[in-house]
């Protein structure tokens, strides 16, 4: 039996980075091949297990992603759009599966991801939990079954430190609803209401964002009709679900052709 696929965690010292490290170390299907931190970080040169306040794990943190990626089969990257596009290019050079869980991408970021995906597998998802991705499938099906007389609102709540809104997962839900209706989310999106907004536009897909405390992640899709309402929801109580989903995606992508995939592909949905 060959060596287990080696995983490199970027942003290793961050909250998600630590969870990703723990997920890989707990897995019997992958090994920790590297941990990348920002230049000059205190972890550089340290065993990451010791840096996390535990026993040594035999993996030394580095601020050189090129060196780390060279020995990787999978990159677990939950950082920022600017960092992720740089990691995508290096992962493509290494022909490693790049699991990109960063959110807040703009058009110029997406263009660079698409360029990297010509040479390697990228699994891009604003949310890597199994439950949330099942919610995506349900949202698409319900939107397809109900016409525009049913108003769609997506309400999401996250911790006070989250810097982008709506969340990446909320936008994914909006895309699923738009696909179900056969419309463009860009044309039907309605968010950031304030003041005298006028009546609701028929067929609009609305977004509301809540930020506060330590909320891990909550998403509700509301279909509001005349005299009745359908609510679909998902609550994330443990950030470890995202790390475990990211690792599952990296393992799934090992034998796939270059391209950009989603968690729906990973889960066969």
UniProtKB/TrEMBL annotation:
GO biological process: one example: diaminopimelate biosynthetic process
Which positions bind (S)-2,3,4,5-tetrahydrodipicolinate? 159
Q: Give the superkingdom in one word.
A: Bacteria
Q: Which InterPro entries match?
A: DapB_C, DapB_N, DapB_N_CS, DHDPR_bac, NAD(P)-bd_dom_sf
Please report the stretch or stretches of sequence annotated as the Dihydrodipicolinate reductase N-terminal domain: 8-127
GO CC, alphabetical: cytosol
Sorted alphabetically, which keywords does the UniProt record give? Amino-acid biosynthesis, Cytoplasm, Diaminopimelate biosynthesis, Lysine biosynthesis, NAD, NADP, Oxidoreductase
**So where does NAD(+) get bound?**
11-16, 101-103, 125-128
Q: Where is the Dihydrodipicolinate reductase C-terminal domain?
A: 131-267
What Pfam family does this protein match (any one)? DapB_N
> What is the reaction catalyzed?
(S)-2,3,4,5-tetrahydrodipicolinate + NAD(+) + H2O = (2S,4S)-4-hydroxy-2,3,4,5-tetrahydrodipicolinate + NADH + H(+); (S)-2,3,4,5-tetrahydrodipicolinate + NADP(+) + H2O = (2S,4S)-4-hydroxy-2,3,4,5-tetrahydrodipicolinate + NADPH + H(+)
**What EC number(s) is this enzyme filed under?**
1.17.1.8
* Pathway per the UniProt entry: Amino-acid biosynthesis; L-lysine biosynthesis via DAP pathway; (S)-tetrahydrodipicolinate from L-aspartate: step 4/4
Family (UniProt)? Belongs to the DapB family.
Name it. Answer: 4-hydroxy-tetrahydrodipicolinate reductase
Q: What is the lineage of its organism?
A: Bacteria, Pseudomonadati, Pseudomonadota, Alphaproteobacteria, Rhodobacterales
